[in-house]
Batch of 2 targets.
Target 1
Amino acid sequence: MLELRQATYRYAGYARPVVHEVDLRVDDGEIVGLVGANDSGKSTLCLVASGLAPASIGGELKGTLTLDRTPAAGLRTYQLAERVVIGFQNPNTQRSGIAATVFEEIALGPINLGLSVTETVARTREAIARLRLEPIVQQDPQRLSGGQSQLVAIASLLAMRPRHVILDEPTAQLDPAGTQLVGEALHALAAAGTSLLVAEHKTDLLEGLCDRVVALDAGRIVLDGPAGRVLGDPGLVALGVEPPSHVRLGRSAAAAGVDRARIDVALQ
Amino acid sequence: MIEIEELVHVYSGETRAVNGVSLSIGAGEAIAVVGQNGSGKSTLVRHLNGLLRPTEGRVAIDGLDAAGRRVAQLAGIVGLAFQDPDRQIFAGSVRAEAAFGPRNLGWRRDAVDAAVAEALTAVGLAGEAETNPYDLGYSSRKLLALASVLAMRTAVVVLDEPTTGQDARGVARLEAIVRSLREAGRTVIAISHDMRFVAESFERVVVMRLGRIVADGSPAEVFAERGWPVLRSTNLEPPLAAVVGARLSLGSTPTEASLVAALVAGQPGGRTGGGGR
């Protein structure tokens, strides 16, 4: 379980906080989606939930982050890394730059956790199989397409078998098949008891993936509830969030005087 | 405007990222290039401004072989906004970043200022002119990278995954930018995985798979039900409007507007005969 209580965070050098009084609990095995307009504080909240803000990047956190009942404030950076991992928006930010092949890149996480070679190789192979990266394992990580880089970054996280996972737009650069693969991998992680927080603009993905969705506006949680209810909320558009495709189509049809049921029939 | 003939690109002796592409793009066309990750889309468009040179084949811009032109010459004709803005951005302020291109094209200062102001307004960053680009969020840095390209007022604008990381307002802004570029008669080429954006904003869709073109036509043609096996062979799914239209036997309805029109036409009291456009 990962829990934020009354979390207010201000970046170093900023006059004002970017997230305000956030209460957010992600249970073991739960996937919580995070939506909001750009600059609503999603990425910052991801950093705070991962403990990197303030542990690694400084700034000031009021309130608490608790990981499995351990306050994150007392943990060293390596202890944090053993408990929670974060996938950044831009996979090029995440790449180590020191691995010669995709296989080595994915193996770096488990190696840094101090695991044995046998265990590292087993976990690396499992992550590769999960995201079907076999065709590119021998390639140079610097020479991948944008989508391939993103899959490798996610595989690197999977190989660490984390208890808590924070993902900031994990599928932004992926084609629909890649997006689906990542969705399946995240479901499998949750089924094994990992708690996940996933910030995404792709509400179609979140609807199928999440138990719960939380919407942020100007750094505050303004909607929090079951995925279907939050993503179907009429107020979502005003927050700058694109509703799922079927919700959008249904509304356009209704606005033109078409019976919504005709679209619902087609979608079944 | 752009003629690509039998283009092949091989990265350092391994992957044939582009494997025999021929494509003719007319002035003022708006083309979306789609296909699975690693299908060669980015590699293809990087030949248009000379960032990459063909391993085999030929790329001609305005009737002249791109091979004979320096990147600086092509930069005045073809502007390319990268998928990853951090590979593009380097200046200390938003204004300086957007001004870099036109200044390097040798424009006079007032012309540079006017182009920069127009480009920053188009992407919604006019209020951030003095901000350091690295204080902007990822999605705003992507819009800045786009503004830097728009500021050069090139005849051809190439956008690599422009909607990535954008919220609903950002996508609407991009749709408006593509529309105004088209109205101004400029050629727009965009790579995207967002099939709704593609269907709504482009008149032609080129589908790539394993370095080759496997389909090329209007959204109504490419997203029609008979085209779905080809789309799925390269990991894509048609837009939801097309799926609903097909299931209700309304013909090809790639856009929301075409679907709604077909639904209205097929209703009691509406025009009879249905059918998408």
Note: The mean pLDDT of chain A is 92.
Target 2
Amino acid sequence: MMQIDVSRFRAAFFVEAADHLQSMEAALLQLENAPRDIELLNTIFRAAHSIKGASTTFGIEEVGRFTHVLENLLERLRDGFLSTSTELVELLLTSIDVIEALIANARDNAPLPENLDVVFRELQRFNSQSSGERQDPMVAADTSFNSSRSPSTSGRYRISLHPSRNFFAFGQDPLLLLRELHELGTVLQIHVDDSQLPPLSEIQPEDCYLAWTIDLETDASEQTLRDVFMFLDEDSRFSVQAASTEEAAATTTSNANPLSPAADLSVSPAAASGFDDIQKGNDPMPRSSSEAKNPSKQRSGENETVRVDRLRLDELINQIGELVIGASMVEQELLSVAAGRGLESMSALGKIVRDLQEMSLGLRMVPIDATFQKMNRVVRDVAKKLSKQIQFVTTGDDTELDKSVVDQISDPLVHMVRNAADHGIEPPEDRIAAGKPAEGVVSLRAYQQGGNIYIELKDDGRGLNRQRILQKGIERGLVDADANLSDAEICNLIFQPGFSTAETVTDVSGRGVGMDVVRRNVESLQGSVSIKSIEGQGSTITVRLPLTLAILDGLLVRLTEEVFVIPLLSVIESICIRPSDIRSIVGVGEVITLRGEVVPLLRLHRLLNIENQQNFDEQVLLVIVEDQGRRLALKVDELLGQQQVVIKNLEANFRKVPGVAGATILGDGRVALILDVYGVSTLPSIDSQNTHRFKPLEA
Amino acid sequence: MSTVLSPELSSASTDHGVSQFLTFTLNDQEMGIEILGVQEIKNFTRVTPIPNMPECIKGVMNLRGTVVPIVDLRKKFNMPSAEYNQFTVIIVVNVGSRIMGLVVDAVSDVLNVAADAIEDAPDLGAIDTSFIRGLAKSNDRLVTLLDIEHLLTDNTATTLA
């Protein structure tokens, strides 16, 4: 059975495990504030159980073994043998990290987590603490993660399983359940009840008619056995009954419904294994008291999603893009022959096609909530480590962004949030001394405005110390000592490489990788980042990101015969000047004066090596662009208009071209290149007489 | 799951180690590339030039939504350039995971060449011939068989005398 290509499923497991870990983490963080929320505990427990089950299936035993112990602990927590404490939550959070590392180990041969043994022992300590005289045999004997488990007192159970008719339709397989039981212990006897089996002529091949009774000898607790069945659909029934009463007494204390020897063999799962099972079949979304944002909401979303290979998705979007072009070509041809009703139908079709394109681009959009949730943990960890009190608030969690943007913004965001919590928020005593509440607030807000998504990170901490930044900037040679900088310019110095304002390099941040990396990352996503700060009152960092990397608002310009696209984001304005307004700067370049500001002029023809036919114009058409805080004037021949273009990269079939950010396909099917405004300014000019290479802001 | 194609499944190498080559002319010389790498043949259409590229890179073309670079093989071999006419075609080839287009004077036919009928590329001294897979003699024709992967990924071949 396992001869099929397991690696594919393994890949799916890794993705799924990451999801589970994420929902565990989210629930744990909420648990801190609502220690008795049984739903949260159930969510955590289910996630752990899923990881355990799947990892065992795929032979990732380290994960299975570790999660098993974790699961035991969670079980005690859920059953009230243990109460939630900060210490415990801390341990559980660390456990998540360990599982993550173990999974990384299985996937990429990453090194095993260093704290594996420590955490493992710690989990066991909690386990034994909570159980008093009762000890899970599997746990009691182990003191180190790597020691093998020793058998202990084993119990005998009679387990019966009555799958529902449409058991298979729910994606279940009794064989898997039986195997799982088999792995837990020794099957003494198994009986198949085929009394429901109809004559062959009436058999529905997709229905399940059989039922089983298994006598099992096992070290596992009754709860463990029940957990095997935790994903049964609601019409299926099972029961687990201890065969010998004295052993039952020793092993089933955790069970909410102690079974008497005379108990009915068939109990519905809801009645048998407690509250969590009641909702399973009919209500995938566990109800929760907190309405604002809870992981359970997300869970229900997950149940309705389909995982699609990104390549396939891109292909689909590509093809639809082609369809748009094709349709507009047909439309233009119909226009030229004035096809009357044909034209009418065509414009109706054109609308559908455009809607389709919009929808297809929407397929790549995902809410940012998962990323925000991660930040929750970051803030918490920093606060714990530095004994600060920080409240973390998020708004606009459901704001949608292109998947690839979300993936790439995560790291810079972690960095910023960590900075805000570490450098921004003061220790409680300082805050009180400054007349502020002891608890600081770090908030993240996402919202859409126009074609952009804004992520705003706000803290009510000490704010930026202008004097210190300036001083440091001078020390590092970033600014001249006598430079007269505006407040905004001073603030933006922190985005310069190698800038870290913390007086002491803490364990949390300040390792020399600073906001410059954040800026570079954001800019590589065609976004921008800026900071506002009031000393003593806090800072606000605003990150602007494009909605998607797949399309771009562009200004179409003509250079001789070629059409180029300039990203509209960087376009400030376009102006017409007389050739005499261009000033030459001692053979190194040309500049124009724009409202008192000197702006370098770039002749795109020269930089891009395009023949220029319009040398003796009376007017020079310039597009003023801004890139990384600098203005540049690009000379073009004609403005053709503004258009949304689908970005195609050149690297896919070719290679990166300096000065070119990518390509796109115009309405007439032609390929147009998208200019990389920053890159183009660093290109050597073809005209060697007039070489003007602009030094990039930071080389 | 099997990696070795059985003879019946492979269209290019038939029973006796015979490979098929698409032949084309370039400056009156006959050349061939293995047909398995050929995706399609297109009439020459307008390409968008890419700035600051070697001369042999004509530019990029839209191939049903994919941006495909176009290489002028005449330029690649430093041959005199020719007017593009109605015979000029673009052979779209797959090189690894990339798609590229080759501009040639005209396509001729498909040539079946037995493996033992391919002679090694002659040693031309200082001139790099690593992009030549061999020479195929068929009747009185002499066809230069190109190793397209080598040709398009190895930059030294650009400067062929």
Note: Chain B has a mean pLDDT of 80.
